[in-house]
Amino acid sequence: MIAATFIFKKKQFDEEFHRLDNEIATFAKSLPGYIGETSWENTEKGQTLSTYYWADEAALSALMNHPAHQSAKSAQSKWLDGYQVIIQQVLHTYGDSQLDHPLAGVTISRP
């Protein structure tokens, strides 16, 4: 399982941003390897952190190579005041399944 974390600081979002964001989200959710996402805001720093969960790297690559994603990436400086992307391999997850989270109830045991 792969997690892709996108941390960013917002500028002003316009109609083009919202159109691309909607197109990217719709495409991502249609991919067989899409598991779900979570998002948090740090209002003190003005940053947003969104983590997307994928069954494998192939599903994430399909999203990253989508034309709308490429367009948004090339225009990001219009809408963002800085960003960082972190791609992680999920090695282990557990919990009591009480949280509304994409991985609630999913158990990955350590090798």
TrEMBL record:
Query: What SUPFAM superfamilies would the database entry show?
Result: Dimeric alpha+beta barrel
Q: Name one GO molecular function term.
A: monooxygenase activity
InterPro entries linked to this entry: Dimeric_a/b-barrel, Jasmonate_Hydroxylase-like
Q: Which Gene3D superfamilies does the annotation name?
A: 3.30.70.100
Q: Which domain of life is it from?
A: Bacteria
What are the entry keywords?
Monooxygenase, Oxidoreductase
Query: What is the protein name given in its UniProt record?
Result: Antibiotic biosynthesis monooxygenase
| Source organism | Leeia speluncae
Q: What is the lineage of its organism?
A: Bacteria, Pseudomonadati, Pseudomonadota, Betaproteobacteria, Neisseriales
